[in-house]
Design goal:
single chain; about 400 residues; mainly alpha; Zincin-like; 2 domains; 4 strands; about 70% helix; about 5% strand; globular
Length: about 400
């Protein structure tokens, strides 16, 4: 029998990853410069892997949920839950914990690869594995704190109104979303990043000047330590109403000049000035209510297919997540189309406000390089997965505007 190398079958590209890590650990003067063609190919590889992982993750979600229901595993979970407590609400929480643990265990290898290994393999992550795991744990705890009351409220209305539960639940979810949008910048975001007022006084005044020109009031301008987790760059408005603030990643501040940051901020300001935020909130409200209504009808229709007797049966509830997930798959391309339209309009706003086409083009190019964006993905990828137009299309549109 011939000896086989331990890397003969290397699905996670461990060997390539190790080589890349060795090269990246060298002093800058000893590292091989990356050509434009190499960078583009690397971006395309990263994009292709990301798309494949998204597809695999989606298929896995539907397949696992359907199998757990079909094979009677959720019935066992229900029995265990009622064995812990005879209260239907406490049993629901126990069921949710068991179901969540099972799914987390099944999805863990894929999450490690997509969230940690892949990001390091392409030189995008600055996190250690422990730090990455800690962020994941914090995310789960935050999700549990937010999700638990919503889950209990949902189950109360399901038991009270059965097929008409979707209306009060939808209204309460919308109210929760508004509250979260106000609280997130001051309570949730600081759990993951350290924020401080923007140090650069000149840039701060420039941003505030843009806000005054657009008639926008903000709570403050903050920078956060994005570089502790990633090499990617980002900036955004966070919060709504009086809690609205501007946040800038330190990676953006380190790698982009004032003209380029001005373009980035003016683009975000365009979303506010053109009413995109309110419009997307309205679309989200309509979409949420439609999703809940459709899922409620299909859920009630489908429980008999698996031998369940009532919509309130704990073992049947995972079917509801399948119907909600299918709605999300079908509505996703429409949401992406609308988002891409808004992005083009915000680009135009930024170009007209700054009058700086060259800064816009260099900003788009830098963002593509830092975030490893494929400048020209296949059309079907853009339609199904991209909420932003491709970099190539955005630059072409800018050439036609100025």
């Amino acid at each position: 029998m011939r000896n086989r190398s331990m890397f003969a079958h290397d699905p996670l590209n461990i060997k390539t990853y190790a080589i890349q890590q060795t090269e990246e650990s060298l002093p800058p003067e000893q590292q091989k410069p990356e050509s434009e063609s190499d960078r583009l190919e690397r971006a395309r590889r990263y994009s292709r892997i990301r798309i494949k992982l998204t597809i695999v993750s989606t298929i896995l979600f539907f397949a696992v949920t359907l199998l757990l229901v079909s094979l009677g595993v959720t019935r066992w979970m229900e029995d265990v839950s009622y064995g812990v407590s005879s209260s239907p609400y406490l049993a629901l929480l126990v069921f949710a914990v068991i179901f969540g643990i099972v799914n987390s265990v099944i999805n863990f290898p894929l999450k490690v690869y997509s969230g940690f290994i892949l990001e390091h393999r392409f030189g995008l992550s600055n996190q250690s594995f422990i730090a990455w795991m800690w962020d994941g744990l914090k995310g789960m705890l935050v999700g549990a704190v937010i999700g638990m009351p919503i889950l209990l409220i949902f189950y109360y209305f399901l038991r009270t109104y059965e097929t008409n539960w979707w209306l009060p639940v939808g209204i309460i979810m919308i109210i929760f979303s508004v509250i979260l949008a106000r609280l997130a910048p001051t309570i949730i975001f600081p759990l993951f990043y350290k924020f401080k007022p923007l140090d650069d006084g000149e840039l701060k005044e420039r941003i505030l000047k843009r806000c005054r020109e657009a008639g926008m009031n903000v709570k403050g301008i903050f920078q956060f330590d994005m570089s502790t987790k990633t090499k990617k760059a980002n900036a955004a408005f966070a919060g709504i109403g009086k809690a609205k603030r501007i946040i800038l990643g330190d990676t953006l501040l380190d790698e982009f000049n004032h003209d380029e940051i001005d373009v980035v901020f003016s683009h975000e300001l365009g979303h506010y000035k053109l009413g995109h935020i309110k419009r997307m909130m309205a679309v989200s409200i309509v979409s949420t209510m439609a999703a809940l209504f459709i899922a409620a009808q299909l859920y009630a229709l489908s429980i008999g297919w698996f031998g369940f007797e009532s919509v309130t049966q704990l073992a049947a509830l995972p079917l509801l997540t399948i119907w909600m997930g299918l709605y999300g798959l079908l509505s996703g391309p429409i949401d992406n189309w609308l988002s891409r339209r808004h992005e083009y309009k915000a680009d135009r706003f930024a170009l007209e406000m700054t009058g700086n086409k060259e800064a816009f083009k260099s900003t788009m190019t830098k963002l593509a390089e830092m975030n490893l964006s494929d400048p020209e993905p296949p059309r079907w990828v853009e339609v199904l997965f991209h909420s932003h137009p491709t970099i190539k299309k955005r630059i072409k549109a800018a050439e036609e505007i100025l």
